[in-house]
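Take a careful look at the sequence and tokenised backbone pasted below. I need to know what the token row says about the fold.
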Amino acid sequence: DDILADGCFMERAELERLIDRLRAKKNLILQGPPGTGKTSLISQMMLRHSKTHVFYVLPVAQANAFAAPDFLPFWQQENSRHPDRVKVVVVEDADRLLRRRKEESSPILPALLNVADGLTGRMLRLHVICSINCHLDEPDPAILRPGRLINHRRFDLLDTTAALTVAKHAQQPWQPRPGCDRYSLAEILNPIVLEEPKPKRLLGFAA
């Protein structure tokens, strides 16, 4: 009953611990290269906790919704619709949103942080999950302040031994590439199987 994430198999107990952090108003950053299982983990959270949580996936291109005038009325309405369920906003590939600000004029990041650990978030009982591909030394320093998006889980590439273990468990016909010693979960679970070339059938006279 394990799930594939973090370049290995995540035990269900560990998934439950992440969910418990959300219940305790602990927001999450899932960080790692593309294809390492961040989206798979979020999907499992949605699937396993659909009766107790409501997940809202917000495309990063529409992250200005955090600073929109109708933000508060929308979530007040959602709280009325689902009074007993935990509300979780998911923002995937949020690198550019959370990266160190070059200018202080953008209202999006302050609005997001107010949702994550401010009066707005406490009043509306919202939780935030962000997935990022950048290193943790790149996000804006405000994110790393105590009580904000500091619950962090890193997803790494696999070494060859771990990759072979995952491929065997998933019954995938995957083999290591020459000269490569680190692999993403996606390429192991979706191997490219090369077919043997079939001899061409010649018509007519052939030498």
